[in-house]
TrEMBL record:
Organism: Halosaccharopolyspora lacisalsi
Highest rank taxon of the organism: Bacteria
Keywords on record: ATP-binding, Nucleotide-binding, Transport
Keyword Ligase: no
PANTHER family recorded: ABC TRANSPORTER, ATP-BINDING PROTEIN (PTHR43335:SF4)
One MF annotation (Gene Ontology) recorded for this entry: ATP binding
Domain ABC transporter: 24-255
Family the UniProt entry places it in: Belongs to the ABC transporter superfamily.
SUPFAM superfamilies in UniProt: P-loop containing nucleoside triphosphate hydrolases
Record's protein name: ABC-2 type transport system ATP-binding protein
Length: 323
């Protein structure tokens, strides 16, 4: 895990009561730098076994929140708990069970990827001397770096450096894995591989927290989401519930979507063309009325199904409400 722990701050961190069911939790977490508020009163709850996407644009407070959770940065106010232990007082009890990649990996430029990883492995309490090389080899293979393990770190691309940081986080089995922008610098193939690593961790019961400013990444990899905006937590919960919160709608595959859109708008029914189909809002009408309107206008209906809101639309709506 990269980063250094701050040694100053005025926060008093106590154990968060009633959080045994959570892998990580904060209450009233706040961080200020002078007059700048980086994180404002965040109450975050990460249940065990989920993949939580911490979603927000750059500067929304994601990385600062993660650093406070891991004991790398002291909060100005509020409390935090990691795997049942108060942070930062007892962070040393939790960190051996946590793998983290925060703000990019930090390795020695003149050592090879394997040599850097061997140094990281030597600090793992669970790895005996004889098991170091096997763990390193397995971690390199897991992130697709086996062929480049002998190259100097300074010659690695940004994506390769991200992979090596992920390998360091996965040297031993973890109860919680925290990844800050893990696909940064990766090409599409590398992004797919990281998604598969996250899926494998989830299948094994590991809790994963993924920070990202990419809506597509959260939707593709996560079971839960927490949306941050300007340092505040806007919403959190199951991703499916969040997607269903955008309002009911109907997706219709019509014989003529242009004529169908015109017919619906003539009746005052909100609709738009999307990917060769019609997406119709059901705020003031029901599905049978939509179908009847299209059929009456001579537009054939090949398929109709309930749709869900697009995550991008929901994010825009949530952040606009808090601006």
């Amino acid at each position: 895990m990269s980063g250094t722990t701050e040694t100053s701050g005025t926060a008093t961190i106590d154990s968060v009561p009633g959080s045994a069911e959570f892998a990580a939790r904060t209450h009233g977490l706040r961080k200020t730098y002078g007059r700048t508020v980086a994180v404002s009163d965040v109450d975050l709850a990460v249940p065990h076994g989920v993949v939580l996407g911490m979603l927000g644009p750059n500067g929304s407070g994601k990385t600062t929140t993660i650093r406070m959770l891991l004991g790398l940065t002291l909060p100005t106010a509020g409390t935090a708990e990691l795997l049942g232990h108060a942070v930062p007082e007892h962070v040393d009890r939790a960190l051996p069970r946590v793998g983290a990649l925060v703000e990019g990996p930090g390795f020695h430029p003149f050592l090879s990827g394997r040599e850097n990883l061997l140094r990281s492995a030597a600090t793992e309490p669970e790895l005996a001397g004889s098991g170091l090389r096997g763990a390193v080899t397995a971690a390199l293979e897991r992130v697709g770096l086996a062929a480049a393990a002998g190259r100097k770190y300074r010659a690695y691309s940004l994506g390769m450096k991200q992979r090596l940081g992920l390998a360091s986080a996965l040297l031993v089995p973890r109860e919680l894995v925290v990844l800050d922008e893990p696909t940064n610098g990766l090409d599409p193939a590398g992004t797919r591989e990281i998604r598969q690593v996250i899926a494998d961790l989830h299948a094994a019961g590991t809790t994963v927290v993924v920070s990202s400013h990419l809506l597509s990444e959260v939707e593709a990899t996560c079971t839960h989401a927490a949306v941050l905006h300007k340092g505040s937590l806007v919403t959190q919960g199951e991703l499916t519930t969040l997607l269903e919160s955008g309002g009911p709608n109907l997706v219709v595959a019509a014989s003529d979507d242009v004529a169908g859109l015109e017919a619906l708008r003539e009746r005052g029914i909100p609709a738009r063309r999307e990917n060769g189909a019609l997406r119709v809002e059901l705020t003031e009408v029901d599905s049978p009325e939509v179908i009847a309107t299209l059929v009456h206008a001579g537009v054939g209906v090949r398929e109709a199904r309930r749709g869900r809101a697009d995550l991008e639309d929901i994010f825009a709506q949530l952040t606009e409400e808090t601006s």
